[in-house]
Amino acid sequence: MYETVKYEVRDHVAWMTLNRPEKLNAFTTQLNKEVRDAIKSAQKDEDVRCLVITGEGRSFCSGQDLSEVDEETDLGEVLRKNYGPMMKQLESCEKPVIAAINGVAAGAGLSLALGCDFRLASDKASFVQAFIHVGLIPDSGNLYYLPRLIGHAKALELAVLGEKISAEEAKDLGLVTRVIAADHFMEEVEGFARRLASMPTRAIGLIKRCLRDSWHMDFNEYLEKEAQGQQIAGQSHDYQEGVQAFLEKRKPEFKGK
Amino acid sequence: MMNDFSFIAVSVENQIGWIELNRPKVLNAINRPMVSEIVSAMEAFDRDDEVRVIVLSGRGRAFAAGADINEMADAGTVDMELINQFAEWDKISLIKKPVIGAVHGFALGGGFELALSCDMLFAAEGTEFGFPEVNIGVMPGAGGTQRLTKLMGKTKALEWLWTGERMPAKEALHYGVINRIIAPELLMEETMKFARKLAAKPPLSLRLIKEAANKAVDYPLHEGMQFERKNFYLLFSSEDQKEGMKAFIEKRNPKFKGK
Fold this sequence. Notes:
The complex is a heterodimer of chains A (257) and B (259).
Chain A lengths: L4 E6 L2 E6 L10 H16 L5 E6 L3 E3 L13 H17 L5 E5 L2 E3 L1 H7 L3 E5 L3 E3 L13 H9 L1 H10 L3 E2 H7 L4 E3 L4 H13 L3 H14 L4 H15 L3 H11 L10
Parallel strand pairs in A: 2-3, 3-5, 4-6, 5-7, 6-8, 7-10
Antiparallel strand pairs in A: 1-2, 8-9
Helix pairs in contact in A: 1-2, 3-4, 4-5, 8-9
Chain B lengths: L7 E6 L2 E6 L10 H16 L5 E6 L18 H7 L2 H5 L8 E5 L2 E3 L1 H7 L3 E5 L3 E3 L13 H9 L1 H10 L3 E2 H6 L5 E3 L4 H13 L3 H16 L2 H14 L4 H11 L10
Parallel strand pairs in B: 2-3, 3-4, 4-6, 5-7, 6-9
Antiparallel strand pairs in B: 1-2, 7-8
Helix pairs in contact in B: 5-6, 9-10
């Protein structure tokens, strides 16, 4: 079904692997579209309760494939047509999304990771805001996410200086959730993903919704948003189950409904 | 009569008359019989003492993705004049009770016009509005250019009418096209909550307020003020006015009867 990504669902986790290893998983128009479609599938599939995005080979994603663009290309249109829709799709996903950063995440590859909820990094991973080195600005939502994740000053440092940072440095910045030794990276990612997939998925989605909207709402609006969120959560099976399990002193079995 | 519909579903609960567009397989594309059914149902609710507020929504993935194009594709000007299909639509604006639209997914073309015929609009987050008519060589014909322009002003309305692009709910909220944006899961629950709140108000006041507010859109200020005043005086022959003011003085909750 896809040519540039691998997509499979196991145990309620959707695994999407960017699959152009010979090109360090660089984005082409086709890859942009397939990432978007795969996110959509994961969103629609009721069986899926967590999405993992990772890269085939030694890199996570190296950003735009430069062989597809030249000086004549209208880069604004490339963003509007290819990257914007992909990032909007990711932003609209209410299921938890993990970026499993197995290697270098550069340019728009880094942006993709920033749009995810959790960044789990292999100790071989590295991060680079490559844009400045070719006279461009970080795109695909990059400068939207970055200050929200690590603050304005650090976001500016990374974007302007464009220095490559290691997984450990990224951890210190608060950019990644966890650094994992390369030799058991996928194993740990799998464990983390399964844990998320067994949690109350609706509540996670509503938490994402509230956090996202809190950035552009005033307090009163936000409180109404929160009330609606809790109203929805309060109607979920998982809430019933959570309370029931608590009363019966057993572990809850959440269904993501 | 109320159960005879093919293209809509209707029900009454808690003094709220609910009309749902019911062609989910075609995203509730609006055809002529559907409009006639909506109008019949609304007129029946308008006369029904059990109903105080009317709610209009769509079943399935969208409120309504547009008018049924197949119905019109081969028509000529004279056909359109003789069929006079929009005369039916115009009757919606004669409904006296409050009509609240609850929209989700898409409200496009005729679907947007139908939404704009409601007095108030609640939209699920993510709802998109638009008039794509321009893309098929026509234009809105059931009030779209008039109602949208009166709501947003000409400059903004033209942008949407000319480009045919989809207006996000936020933009619609910003320009006063809709009243509020609600989490999709709660659209009907919250709309019904609001409808119940209105249903508890004195129906004659609601009715005459609606009439006067509509005049404000069409009349010059002076004529509108005269109209308002007559409606204000008119309410003084209602039982609910006597009850409302008496209850206020006696510091108790009023019991309104709609008389």
